[in-house]
Each structure stands twice: as C-alpha cells, then as structure tokens.
Amino acid sequence: MTDAQDTAADSTRRSNGDTSPDDAGSSVTEAPTPLLEPREGIPPVVADEAALAEVVAAFAAGSGPVAVDAERASGYRYGQRAYLVQMRREGAGTALIDPVGCPDLSALGEALSGVEWVLHAATQDLPCLREIGMLPTRLFDTELAGRLAGFPRVGLGAMVENVLGFVLEKGHSAVDWSTRPLPEPWLRYAALDVELLVDLRDALEKELDRQGKLEWALQEFDAIASAPPAEPRKEPWRRTSGMHKVRRRRQLAVVRELWETRDRIAQRRDVSPGKVLPDAAIVEAALALPGNVHALAALTGFGHRTGRRQLEQWQAAVDRAKALPESELPQPGQPVTGPPPPRAWADKDPSAAARLSAARAAVTTLAEQLAMPQENLISPDTVRRLCWQPPAAVDAGSVSTALAGYGARPWQVELVTPVLVTALSEKGA
Fold this sequence. Notes:
Mean pLDDT: 92
Oligomer: single chain
CATH topology of the largest domain: Nucleotidyltransferase, domain 5
Shape: flat
Structural class: alpha/beta
C-alpha cells in the first residue's frame, strides 16, 4: 500500500471500531425515531411567479448549504422531467416548487450560484434540474459519500436512520408526481426528504474526514458538478427488455420499428412508453414476425384490449421492418467503441484476459481494504481499457497518465496505480 492507502485503511478500521466496513459511521445505538412532520409544517406549493420571486429572495438571503431534491413521474409520463422540486436552507426554511406552474427556475439557480447544493444520488436529479435552469457549481452527494465511507446501505432512508437516528416515511417514492393537485401526504413526504439532508451531509463530512477520505469525496463531487450533459444514447431501442432473445437481423429491425413507433406515440401523449406497449410485446412480435393483424392480435402482448386501429399501426411497423432491404437491417450487437466484451477476451487475446483477471483481483482487494465498492475506487470500464491496450512501458508514470486520460480522479490514480502496475507487470503487459 501507499501511505495514502495505509492511512485510509487504518482510519476506516479505527472509526468503525473493528475491521468490518458494515458499521462504517454508524453511531446510532438507540431505537430510531420516526420523523412524521416537517419542523415548520408543510409549506404551500409555489406555483406562480410572485410566490417564486419570494422563494428566490429568501433562499438568496439564507446561509450555509442548500438541500435539493426533485420528484419525477417515471413509469407514468414520457421522459424524466421534474414535477416537484424541494429545497431547504438555513434562514429560508423549506420550499416546494411546482415546475409545471414555474417551468423556468433559472433565477433561483443563479441566486444559489456558488452555494453548495446537497443532493442524494445527484446524478439522478441533475438532468431534470438542468432542464428547468438549475445547476450547482458546488455539490455534496450524500449517497456517494455513504459509498465512499463504506456504508452497506446508501438509500436516503437507510442513511438517515443509521447516521442520524430518524426514520423517514418512504411510501410515496414511486407515485405519479404529475398528479395535480398533489395530495397532502405526498407533500409531507417530499418536504421530509430535505428536512435532514444538510444534517446528514455534516455527519458524513465528519465521517469521511475521520476515515481520511474527505479529499477523495470532494474530488468526486467536483467531477459530478463539472460534468457536461450526457450525450443521447445511440440506438436506444437496443435496450428493450428481453432483447437477448432476438438474434436474427430481420427480427432486430422489427424491434427497432416497433420501439420507434411506440416512442413517437408516447412522446405525443406524454405517457411512459411502457404504458403504450410493453417491451415484452415488442420482443414477442419480433420473434413471431406476424403476417397480418389477426396473427398479431393472437400474440400474448397484443390482447383483446388492443383496438383495431392500434393493431394496424403496430402491424404497419412490423411490415416496414419486413420490407427493408438486407443492407438496411441492423447488425447484431451494439457498435463497439472500446474493448470487446470481457467474455470474448480469452479467445481474442489470452494475454489481455490474464491481465484483466489480475487487475480485477487487485482492485477488489484494495477496495475491500479501503471499505468501499470497487466501482467507486475505479471505473470497471477504465480497468478494461487499460488491460486491453496497456501502455508500452508499464510503470507508474505511464499507467497514471493512462488512468487520468480515461477520466480517473487524482485520488483514484494515486491509490490504484501501484496495484495495477504490479498486476500488469506480472502478466507480461
């Protein structure tokens, strides 16, 4: 181990009281207390410009970090837009903002520029917040902090209970947040989600500092805050559930046509694509290649509730795929932009397969010593790329440069470089 590894591993064990990461940061021994009501009650929902202006002024005048959360309507509506934004800051209290009534929150985002935002699982909420003009310049992710600190369960409810000793009511996490008006129990749940977020942040900061991991966490938070918007996924139809059953190119074309038709309909209706046509029905039609509406209607996914007009539009999609020339049929498998799937390495390059096996084992061991998930220690994709095409000279300098080039943060480069150099050298990179 490097000095940094020794310090982190030792401090982790000391803070836990033993060598097990399962108790990381857990200082609550009494029975947890149910958190039933926000301390100032449920605030009114902000749904017009006048009320929003008051919130902007209040939060700009507040102090300390700001807790931020967002609720979406996944499974009900098309896309991942926010249908409620919850915020809390010292001196400003809690605000519940309706992005339907107030679709532009850029003034609020600007008022909080330079302020640290506290989110739980930030990468889930940042895309929908960006859409309405809110993007932090600094953040603290309590879920990621929990991972780095070695907590075995990092959901918000588990973290609040284990660290702060309170039980959050989580019964409304999967409801349709596009519902208007929002029921009072849902609003209570939403307000409570940010009630203790800053308290959790403060406790986790102390825990990370005690374990010698605070600087690592800060580098991770900076990387999230500065990351550009994600590129749209290429060929998203390939992520249809059950695609592994579809092998022939003509069948793949049917999946593509049905998926794209469904997506257009879902977007127009503003409903979840799964409510228009289930993935299972798309795959079933692709495997059966029905010749007409009657054959399509006989398939399980297209039951008796499917109207004639709907059947005709799905059959038209199937017919378009069946009429495509061979040159326009999709190829099996997604386009490969990096190394091939690891399962193919033994045949394509046995030496690379040996390097990957050794590197994975080394990273796993180090992650266990540091009491954190190995994917947070270093991206598995980065390890694969390094092992598939290692630098000409396997030494600390070249490996460090390669890791940084793949996006590894400085703390990751420092910790992982020595074990990867050893693993690659032993397997003759």
